[in-house]
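Subgroup meeting minutes
Present: P.N., E.W., G.H.
Scribe: E.W.

1. P.N. recapped why we're keeping a running log of single-chain structure predictions: easier to compare across weeks, and new members can see raw inputs and outputs side by side.
2. G.H. added today's entry (46 aa).
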Amino acid sequence: MGDLTQLMDNEAFRAFASYAAIILSKMMLMSTATAFYRMTRKSPPE
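Output recorded in log:
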């Protein structure tokens, strides 16, 4: 487990992890927004 703490101290890994979290959050938000838009507009699924 010593390697994990070294990895968390790495600035490049922290940047990668934060950007990955942002992208995953955006992906979940956009899928929810798309589903809401399609359901309210009665758009057929593609």
